[in-house]
Amino acid sequence: MSSKQHETIYLEDYQPPAWLISHTELRFELEEEHTLVRAQLSVRANPAVADKRMPLELFGDEAMELCRLSIDGQILETCDYQRDAGCLRIQNVPEHFTLECVTRLLPHENTALEGLYKSDGMFCTQCEAEGFRRITFFPDRPDVMSVFRTTLVADKARYPVLLSNGNPVDNGEDGEGRHWVTWDDPWPKPSYLFALVAGDLALLEDNYTTLSGREVALRIYAERKDLDKLDYAMQSLKNAMRWDEGVYGREYDLDIYMIVAVDFFNMGAMENKGLNIFNTSCVLAHPKTTTDLGFQRVEGVVAHEYFHNWSGNRVTCRDWFQLSLKEGFTVFRDAEFSADMNSRTVKRIEDATLLRTAQFAEDGGPMAHPVRPESYMEISNFYTLTVYEKGAEVVRMLHTLLGSELFRKGSDLYFERHDGQAVTTDDFVAAMEAVSGRDLSQFKRWYSQAGTPLLTVSDQYDEHTGEYCLNVRQSCPPSPGQEHKQPYHMPLAMGLLAEDGAELYAGCLELTGEEQQFRFTDIASRPVPSLLRGFSAPVKLDYQYSDAQLLMLLRHDTDGFNRWDAGQRFCIRLLQEQMRRYRAGEPMQCPDVLISAWRELLTDASLEPAMVAQCLELPSEAQLSELAEQIDVTAIHAAREFMRAALATALEQEWLQAYQRCDTGAAYAADAASMGRRSLKNLALSYLMLTGCEPWLELARQQYEQSDNMTDQLAALSLVAHSGFRETGAELLQAFYQQWQHEALVMNQWLSVQASDPTPGALARVQALSTHPVFDARNPNKLRALIAGFCARNLFHFHAEDGSGYEWLADWILQLDRRNPQIAARLLTPLTRWKRYDTERAALMQAQLQRMMDTAELSADVYEVVSKSLM
Ligand code: 0A1
Ligand code: ZN
């Protein structure tokens, strides 16, 4: 049994802070063996809290060394305060005072990558959510906002660049090789937005003139060797700044905007005020080393962090239960930005797919929680798809229900009312209510109820009266701690199509009741409903479409998203039928209707290639798993592979023509149209390779050798490496390694390709790779590439019947938990789903969870996930 008791924090226990910090002055003496931090806090009693005798409570990591503590210059002895489990309490303090605190840190030993740590020789910080308490003792909670002034002192030769939030206001040298810079951030901020960087960094500089004519210096820092990979991030940043001015009327508010790329980072990026810190994978981009997906990620994450300057920094969260206030809104904003920069329909398809595969699975698992959680043991475990992606869908529904004009008025009011404050999701909804005059109290259930709602739709048509009636029933399954759910308020965007495809109606219904009927009159013939257009609500939809209706929608729906969705529903149905056949020992079949529908899509040169590629991609094994009552890994894999092979052979000529049509020979460009062509081209190549014919191997090899960009090179590599042509695969993997071994991000791709290789011997291959020199278990990107890559994208082997995949993962988690608990807890996700599998697999997974539970000294991060999974 894990010996430590981990405390649970509840939303209902929230109390406003008794003490406020108006100013925070920090001085960092950065040295090789340690860092000394001197913090001076101007503390005053919170006038809004009546009890002035409350003790001052400061959070500080248990392992942090406290060197000195004083109040108004008076040194405190250990008997003057209580220090226990991460908290320091001082009783009987005056109403105003200056607290000084000196701590000693060991950044080079910080492997958790929270607080102050070293990434490849440079100092950097990560303070969200609770990293600041690893730097100094502080009321480290988002509703305590303070003006920061920070001085960094370091060796000038090793750390010529010294950065923190705001503007540089002073600097100097001591004549003995050390220099210092003082930064001043005029905007009060919570401690989680504090940042510093010290290193030997190269810089790409540009500038931006805001709508009101202010000049802003834009600076992106990275290691010198990566200087040629910063242009795309810079362009994305400028696009995002312009977009936020145009769409939300929001301008940037400091003279300098900085981004720093670091190689060791637990997440994607961090929106620290004026000094964003980015995982290199989310900022570096170059056609030769970055895939199209990588380019899109850079564009999206740069925009996301920039948008946080208003939705997160100027208006922040009252407490961490409100995380989706900033994250849901900001993801919605970045999704709309990406939709405007690229194809709106494709972006929607990608986001809906992520929700349906991974978020729905989270909603149905042991860690299910509402968009605004009610309790947590470790807040890092709640940076989830529910808080981010479902939270964004909730904001999107508000946008749909109010319309874009009112939504904009609501966001203006929200920013105006709460600028400089730390607020709640209720405050956000209240602003939307105020501008629209609508009562959104039922809508707020989206924030408080967990689980994925199900819409069950049926219809009747009366040919005599021309009346068509739609019955919609909504329900939501129980989730941990929530047995019964109340009905939601949601928009149901829909259309009615005649059998020949003509659109008879398009509009948006509003659901509020458990069961509702909607009547349509003057409908000349039985219509086909196109439901949940654009994925207008994050729900599951059950309507008994006939095959013919789905194929009609695939051809004619005016809503691009639902065209794609109809095709997917049809494929899912066929795949589920093949799974049944596989289990029954009957031969599997690929019906002619599917082949002809795909042929039609494949040969219609008027369609957007990106859309065609989306339509011709079968639902993933992960998505089929999420849809299954009980997940049958083997049947899913067999059915999907059978179908892919059948479609490959039946449409071989068409795949080739599509390949040739999309292979324009033009030089690489990172625009949406070119990316769309490459996605269809590489999808066509993947089907050609499935035929197992030598000429297509040659085509892939040619593409590998001749392409001028990573998208095409990597696609060819992974197709050959995953094919039956093992020798050529090994040869290309080796060549790729030789070519790119000095590019860390490319090596992550190289690891990923091998981790997802579905051919026999997969586990042995990843085990061997974990001792390869390019792998580094301290680097989260490497862990994600190899370990998470194997568990999430090689399902057949991860779920091997003998449980070897589970044991391997559990070994890693136990090892990593001592080093980096956040990453260890994240890697656990696949094991938490054990109840969805057959009894044998479920028992094997459960046994690994139990083994972890029986380990002494689990971190709060891993303990929370393991214990909840075993409940
Ligand atoms: N706020 C960041 C994400 C982030 C969260 C936690 C981190 O460390 C534990 C790091 C980054 C964002 O939404 O981009
Ligand atoms: Zn964010």
From TrEMBL:
Pfam families in the record: DUF3458, DUF3458_C, Peptidase_M1, Peptidase_M1_N
Q: Which cofactor does it need?
A: Zn(2+)
Q: Which InterPro entries match?
A: Aminopeptidase_N-like_N, Aminopeptidase_N-like_N_sf, PepN_Ig-like_sf, Peptidase_M1, Peptidase_M1_dom, Peptidase_M1_pepN, Peptidase_M1_pepN_C, Peptidase_M1_pepN_C_sf
What GO biological process terms are annotated to this protein in UniProt?
Answer: proteolysis
Q: Which residues form the Peptidase M1 membrane alanine aminopeptidase domain?
A: 232-446
Keywords, in A-Z order: Aminopeptidase, Hydrolase, Metal-binding, Metalloprotease, Protease, Zinc
Under the GO molecular function aspect, what terms does this record hold?
alanyl aminopeptidase activity; metallopeptidase activity; zinc ion binding
Q: Which reaction does it catalyse?
A: Release of an N-terminal amino acid, Xaa-|-Yaa- from a peptide, amide or arylamide. Xaa is preferably Ala, but may be most amino acids including Pro (slow action). When a terminal hydrophobic residue is followed by a prolyl residue, the two may be released as an intact Xaa-Pro dipeptide
- Output the PANTHER family linked to this UniProt entry: PUROMYCIN-SENSITIVE AMINOPEPTIDASE
Name the record gives this protein = Aminopeptidase N
| Source organism of this protein record | Marinobacterium marinum
**Lineage of the organism:** Bacteria, Pseudomonadati, Pseudomonadota, Gammaproteobacteria, Oceanospirillales
